Amino acid sequence: MKIKTYFMDLETYSEVPIQYGTHAYAADKSARILLWAYALNDGPVKVWDVDQEPNMPDDLRAAIHDIQSYGARHVWVNGVMFDTVFLQYRDIDLPLIQCDDVRVIAYQHALPGGLGELCKIFKLPTDIAKDKDGSRLIQKFCVPKFKNGIKNYRMKREDTPADWERFVEYCRRDVSSMREIYKRFPGFNNTVQEKEFQLLDVTINRRGMCVDLDLVRAAIKLADKSKDEMDDAIAEKTGGAVSSVNQRQAILDHIREAYGIELESLRSTDIERYLDDPEIPEPVKDILRDRLRGAKTSKAKYKVVENCNVEGRLKGCLQFRGASRTGRVSGVKFQPQNLPRPTKGAQEIEAAIELMKADALDLAYEHPSEFLSECLRGVIVASPGKRLCVADYSNVEGRVLAWLAGEEWKLQAFREFDAGQGHDLYKLTYGRTFGVDPEKVTKELRQIGKVEELALGYGGGAGAFAQFADKFGIDFTHMSELVRKTADPEVYADSENMWEWALEKKITAKLPHDVWVACNTVKQSWRNANAQIVAFWSACETAVRSAIEIPNKSFPIRPGLYARRYGNWLLLHLPSGRFLVYPAPRASEGGDVTYMGNNQRTRKFERLKTWGGKIVENITQAVACDLLFEAGLRLEKAGYEIVLSVHDEYICEIPDDKTRNHRHMEELMSSLPSWAEGLPLVAAGFETYRYRKE
Questions:
Q1: Which is the most buried residue in 5, 201, 209, 218, by most CB within 10 A?
Q2: Taken in order 483, 486, 492, 496, is the CA torsion positive or negative?
């Protein structure tokens, strides 16, 4: 018997900009449904025009009853993050266990989430493809206008009847397009557990996080005041050539014309490097310091909180499966995954927050605006009568990579360290790389070991190591000398011999000779010490190539991990049972492995290249994601109300009593699912009333 399925789409209006997020948009008293398109199975698409017919049609009312009584499914273009949320604010609750969201399904298959893009990818006939005039019509009827002296005038049918008819047809066609795309999805990740994970994400998004609006308002006030002061200062220092710290090109031009210095960029990391350069004169450094302070003065995230919160809670900040290559959640609006890492201690930041809220931070600090980025995490606070319980997986990617690859020495190192019986991994890594007793690995050498682990696990070369080393403030000259003295002479000599080849291939990352030789030596030494991980890169690429060449056959890599091609889809089966999906794969003999995907730089759906190390990175991060979601289900069941996830960390609200604590949360997160036997997994947590980095 055919499952009864309703395909639906809303067109809505609100005086609150949609850029402020669905919850603020939908919660406003002006918000209303304009059109509601709906169709049962393959039946005709109907549109309820609310202005024309204020009472809901009987068949739509019956459809809602069918869905609410679990007698039918409902499918939306962006139902989880928008339509069903909007309806909730209109007192219409639709069970999400019965809901299929086309955007989410697209993300599960590594496709773009926009309906127009999906129509192009699936080459829908023009009679049902998404109407390209839709953007104009939405701007016309869904966004308030200034008309006839009225500030928030809503355009109606009677204002432009012809365009309104086009708008109705646009809404109707969206449902037709969405229905056809829904039929064409293969549904590789259509599992009970995947639905559980999606509902967990919904719970987190709709619960939201409590925010300190007093801090938000104080931060915005300070940002405005500091911006004006810094603009005045840089204008004075440049004789009016630059009028704002945000004028990137004007700053570069002035420094070149006034001082004869050609700077490559004004990225924060580059400015820090320029400030350490004795060849750059002090007046230029003064300008650069102003620019750097200006970058830390951004009030954008504070404005997001101010605009998007609903009654003191910030909701809808996570997109389920938004990271298409791994299935991790991605950030929306507030972008919690991109919060700056603080450089001050927790007590100093807490004191600065209180001073900022009292409008007195400038009494304690010469440049108070520098605390704006430091205090950003502190916007998230516990609700009254509760506290935050925070726990983060310890080096989960490093542990998962070693487990997948079978790098037994590293797994044993993690186990011994977790039991309090061994050295930390970064000391061991440096020691194993260079044949040094871990007891003799200094803090400086440990830092090199840390950069090795972060930069080299996915096939990174000398350039990748140098990039990470620069971020961690490693002195390249001193490091080069250390490597020359401690490395295996044969490995160092091999790197010396590769220099001319690297120059010819243009893969020196513009590094000086000694630095490149040292970085390449570190790379090769690390690979020699991690032979199983290196072999894992090759095993993954070989399996992927074989699967692309021979469809409908599984090519095992490790227990529970295999590659298989179905039609125009390459699948990587993860130990959890979930699939990573690569559309339209290709592999030429001795050439590149490619697939269609979202280019994170161009934001276009285009052909991308991958290779062994990159495939391993995708797999490792995906497994870490699966661990986090499974832990989330356990936490919720135990009464830890998750308000946010950031990378491999959960932030929960718990009652401000002794019923729950971070030790118990650590245990829940560290429990292994049946498919992860042998993985040394550890979480570390703490409790607080204001979110911070431990």
A1: 209
A2: positive
